[in-house]
Design a protein that fits this description.
The complex is a heterodimer of chains A (620) and B (337).
Chain A lengths: L7 E4 L2 E9 L4 H14 L3 E7 L14 E9 L12 E4 L2 H7 L8 E5 L5 H7 L17 E5 L1 H8 L7 H5 L2 H12 L5 H11 L3 H21 L4 E4 L8 E7 H16 L3 E5 L6 H8 L6 E5 L3 H14 L2 E6 L1 H17 L4 E6 L16 H6 L8 E3 L6 H16 L3 E6 H5 L1 E5 L45 E3 L14 H17 L10 E2 L5 E5 L3 H14 L5 E4 L2 E3 L5 H6 L3 E6 L4 H10 L4 E4 L8 H17 L1
Helix pairs in contact in A: 1-6, 1-7, 2-3, 4-6, 4-8, 6-8, 7-8, 9-10, 9-14, 11-12, 17-20
Chain B lengths: L1 H4 L23 H15 L6 E5 L14 E4 L5 H11 L4 E7 H7 L1 H10 L3 E7 L34 H7 L4 E6 L3 H13 L4 E6 L11 H4 L4 H4 E4 L6 E2 L5 E5 L4 E5 L17 H8 L8 E8 L5 H15 L4 H5 L4 E4 L1
Parallel strand pairs in B: 1-2, 1-3, 3-4, 4-6, 5-6, 7-11
Antiparallel strand pairs in B: 5-11, 8-9, 9-10
Helix pairs in contact in B: 2-7, 4-5
The chains are: A alpha/beta (620), B alpha/beta (337).
């Protein structure tokens, strides 16, 4: 690349870029590819794909806007960024929706071809914001690029349909942005070769426009500035880009191999959980039976049937589907079978906002079943942590013979980050505790240490027994309505999950152990909490934080940690689930920051909240 | 595994558990329990190779009375649980015990999909046209106008047609029998077991307490021969105490003809359990105008769910070597030094 013109090269430490356009514009693909070049350049990064639930909303409307935000940096980062410094808009609607979020003084790149009267009207603009007289964009640095025209020009000589040509325009934009951030084009070329290797014309067209986009910037001096974000200092090793959906699936496959039991995963299509079913369905070579069932109840019960048989019975869904599975989950609690349930939480009650994220299912997971029903609840804290949590879910379910709910999030499924690929040989083997010996076998006789009953592969000679939803006599498993026995069994089921507390790691405090204020969160809020904490620390104040990955049972040192701080601030994407648990269980006062916008909590908002709480401590 | 075990002679009592059945006196579930145990003894496989899965209802207590593996699950969900079990261990003989409410009301969706999925399950649907365990509410098969606890002025809905449902869902084995035909029931159960794929056995079972006599019109010993037609592949459709009645092709339905005993006319239909037209016509026979068909209504071969799942896994293994390390390290990777 030659930069002959007078272009300022601006080296920055971190930057946030957002692509926005119609959901049919290929925004997610563009974002993913930009993410790949970012990884290739050695930056740390975090992404946030955000799309409407309509597959193809009417063109040019504000509710049809799909976006992809990425923050990348020369240092460790934890979130996809609050507000983009650079916004790439494919149409007026994308501009309209994102005007409020772009940093003042930020750079906005628009496809000016799309700013027609008709599109402007659809987006709800009075007049054209690109007009020199318009005040709308006065706070921003706007670059108008005729992306559509340039795409058609670049493909002028190609013998292909107008529509097919237009479909390439996102790669023109990608060429432009690659230039702006001094990115090599190789990773994108590699991707295109792989994707369109069998369609030489499509390949050629996309490569052409990609280079056209890049070269236009080089020759036409569109931007007076170029950005460079130097590589981040990550721990040495081999890295790849991973999202929560792949990490979850890979974790399950590793666990299946380590315990030497095949997976039966049954699911019913639901946003955003279907991704796991898609991924596993394509990985049958790892002895995975991935079944799409007739409904959510069949999905959980088929997995339960597999767990009963002696397989890793796993199901996944989101709120509405989990609600339907509740009765079957209680059968798994009653029959003490290692059923694993993934809840990829989405936003809102009922259908809510299916493609948006939230942490609203914590209380349902812990308490949302009839009677005293206890099971293990785990929550991954990042896209890559989904890998480790999946392995942990298999380990605990099979060791303690109990269902496990993994509270994952829509945000984690779709967002991606660099992942240092672990050496799977170093992951410990797990013991499949199948009972074979018929001597002295009783279905509900328990292991003294774990209180787990024996797992029997159905079909094993001499171990014939019947289990079911009716209350059992301890040890023999005979059905009974004896009052004291029911009391005993209810307590045993509770105690069994509490035993898991001896088998999980202590929580580690991140940040200043001698701070007065402790931030407490679970799941994906880890990223924004950490980012906020570091900003506050940089201003000379002390802050500590914890992320709880084990939500039932809670880690044993949690109480001591909570009590050792003057102020505990609970942060959640709900109106106070964990907050209520902490207050009632540990009898301590807390401050609470909760948001249910369908988006991660902005770091700036969290910083403000922390500073306010720190100030109030000073006043006392 | 069965070649070796076939040598062993089993008795029906070998399949009986120590638990004492707690159905009401006079309940025909006792007869079906005995028939299943007798069939299993004749099938000749040991107890640990059978699993009985049930839902909720009177009939669903069944697994407790068996010495095999058993799973008494939740209302309506026995079928997907049994499918997960069979998929995980295809060697097992998996029996599903369900009722008209469990199987066709709360679990109706699973029944449709289990039948079209064709996992090698043996579904025994006990139909007593009433909710017994909950003490006498109408069921999806209760006849229109029947007076009961939840329909003091008579039920309003058209009853489900179990055979029609099974046919339309694509079941590969459909049989119908009454619990009062003890020997025939055992035979049907053995055939259901022998069929590879989902077997749907619809059993008329009298509830002595809440719907007594529901099937008397065609199961009472005195009159049943004149009101049932035995359905058997390759055999003429004849019935009657004197075997003097038969079914001939009419206009889109069977017509009944009478003839002199032992002189079966040529136009009596010879039943073909694979013929979709005959299957439909035989299921359309409506009591009391026509006799009730008893026997194997449909039997065809089709790919079995768990076999195909396994075939696909084998295919995938042949195509892509299952290398987990390679999978995880795939894609665009980069080194940080």
């Amino acid at each position: 690349m030659t930069v002959e013109k007078q272009v300022e090269l601006n080296e920055v430490d971190t930057i946030t870029v957002k692509f926005a356009g119609d959901s049919g514009d290929g925004i997610q693909l563009t974002g993913d590819q930009f993410g790949n070049t970012t990884a290739f350049a050695g930056n740390d990064f975090a992404t946030f794909p955000d799309f409407p639930s309509e597959i193809r909303a009417p063109l040019g409307t504000t509710y049809g806007v799909s976006s992809y935000q990425i923050q990348f940096a020369a240092k460790d980062i934890y979130t996809p960024g609050d507000t983009p410094e650079v916004l790439v808009c494919f149409n007026p609607a994308a501009l309209k929706v994102n005007l409020d979020v772009v940093n003042k003084g930020g750079l906005i790149i628009v496809n000016e071809d799309e700013f027609t009267d008709k599109n402007l009207k659809k987006a709800g603009f009075d007049g054209n914001p690109l007009d020199p007289t318009s005040e709308t964009l006065k706070d921003f640095r706007v670059h108008k690029i005729p992306i559509t025209t340039l795409t058609l020009q670049a493909l002028d000589e190609m013998d292909m349909g107008h529509g097919d040509k237009l479909r390439c325009k996102n790669f023109l934009a990608l060429g432009v942005v690659s230039w702006l951030f001094s990115r090599p084009l190789e990773p994108i070329e590699k991707f295109l070769n792989k994707k369109f290797g069998k369609k030489p014309q499509v390949l050629e067209a996309n490569l052409k426009v990609l280079h056209a986009g890049f070269n236009i910037c080089d020759t036409m001096e569109i931007f007076p500035i170029m950005y460079k974000v130097p590589p981040a200092k990550l721990e040495p090793g081999t890295y790849r880009n991973i999202n929560g959906s792949l990490a979850t699936s890979y974790g399950l496959l590793v666990a299946s191999q380590k315990i030497d039991i095949p997976i039966v995963f049954s699911g019913y299509p639901i946003t955003p959980a279907s991704e796991i079913l898609h991924t596993l369905a394509a990985l049958k070579q790892f002895d995975v039976a991935a079944i799409q069932t007739e409904d959510e109840i069949a999905a959980v019960t088929m997995a339960l049937g597999a767990a009963y048989a002696g397989k890793l019975g796993i199901t996944g869904s989101s709120g509405p589907g989990i609600a339907l599975k509740v009765e079957a989950i209680n059968l798994a609690v009653m029959t003490e079978l290692p059923l694993i349930i993934f809840d990829f939480m989405r936003s809102g009650i009922s259908t809510g906002m299916p493609t948006k994220t939230e942490q609203g299912d914590l209380l349902m997971s812990l308490y949302g079943r009839p009677s005293d029903s206890y099971l293990i609840v785990l929550a991954p804290s990042s896209a890559s942590d989904c890998f480790w949590i999946s392995i942990e879910a298999v380990r605990l379910a099979t060791k303690y013979m109990t269902p496990v709910i993994v509270l994952s999030e829509g945000f984690l499924i779709n967002s991606s980050e660099p992942w240092k690929i672990p050496d799977i040989d170093n992951i410990p083997e797990m013991k499949a505790p199948f009972r074979i010996n018929p001597e002295g076998y009783l279905p509900y006789k328990r292991n003294k240490e774990t209180l787990a009953r024996d797992w029997v592969k159905i079909g094993t000679p001499g171990l014939e027994h019947t289990i079911g939803g009716l209350e059992k006599t301890n040890e023999t498993g005979n059905i009974t309505q004896d009052p004291e026995n029911h009391d005993l069994m209810t307590r045993l089921r509770y105690e069994k999950t509490q035993k898991v507390g001896n088998d999980i790691p202590d929580i580690e405090i991140i940040g200043d152990k001698d701070a007065d204020l402790l931030l407490v969160g679970w799941g994906s809020t880890l990223g924004s909490m950490r980012a906020a904490m570091e900003v506050v620390q940089a201003s000379g104040k002390k802050v500590a934080m914890i992320n709880i990955r084990y939500l039932n049972p809670l880690p044993k040192n949690l109480g001591d940690i909570l009590r050792s701080f003057k102020k505990v601030v609970v942060v959640e994407l709900n109106l106070g689930h964990l907050n209520m648990i902490i207050r009632s269980k540990f009898m301590i006062d807390t401050a609470f920051l909760g948001r249910v916008t369908g988006q991660p909590i902005p770091v700036t908002e969290m910083i403000e909240f922390i500073n306010k709480e720190l100030d109030s401590l000073k006043e006392h | 595994m069965s070649t070796e075990t076939n040598q062993i002679k089993y008795k029906a009592t070998d399949f009986k558990s120590a638990a004492e059945p707690r159905w009401c006196p006079g309940c025909e579930d006792y007869a079906i329990l005995k028939a299943v145990q007798t069939a299993m003894a004749k099938i000749g496989r040991p107890t640990h190779e059978h699993a009985v899965v049930s839902g909720i209802g009177c009939s669903s207590r069944f697994p407790y009375y068996m010495s095999t593996y058993g799973f008494h699950t939740i209302h309506g969900r026995a079928l997907p649980i049994a499918t997960g079990l069979k998929l995980s261990n295809p060697e097992l003989a998996v029996w599903v015990v369900t009722g008209d409410g469990d199987g066709m009301s709360i679990g109706g969706n699973h029944l449709i999909h289990a039948l079209r999925r064709n996992s090698d399950l043996n579904i025994l649907l006990f139909n007593n046209r009433i909710y017994g365990l909950t003490k006498g509410q109408y069921s999806p098969t209760s006849v229109k106008g029947m007076v009961n606890k939840t329909a003091p002025y008579g039920t309003i809905e058209t009853p489900v047609d179990p055979l029609g449902l099974a046919i339309e869902s694509g079941a590969t084995f459909i049989a119908q029998i009454s619990a009062t035909y003890v020997k025939e029931l055992v035979d049907v159960l053995i055939e259901a077991y022998n069929h590879k794929g989902t077997s749907f056995v619809h059993i008329y079972q009298n509830c002595y307490i809440y719907n007594n006599g529901a099937f008397d019109g065609f199961t009472n010993r005195e009159i049943r021969d004149d009101n049932n037609v035995k359905v058997e592949h390759g055999k003429p459709l004849i019935f009657g105490k004197e075997l003097n009645k038969g079914l001939v092709m009419g206009y889109g339905k069977f017509d009944i003809v009478e003839f002199e005993p032992n002189k079966i006319p040529d136009n009596i239909v010879i039943y073909d359990e694979t013929d979709p037209v005959l299957i439909k016509m035989i299921k359309d026979l409506e009591f009391p105008d026509s006799p009730v068909p008893m026997g194997i209504i449909k039997r065809v071969e089709a790919p079995i769910f768990e076999d195909v799942v396994r075939e696909q896994i084998t295919m995938a293994k042949d195509k892509f070597k299952p290398d987990l390390k390679k999978l995880i390290e795939a894609g665009d990777t980069w080194e940080v030094k």
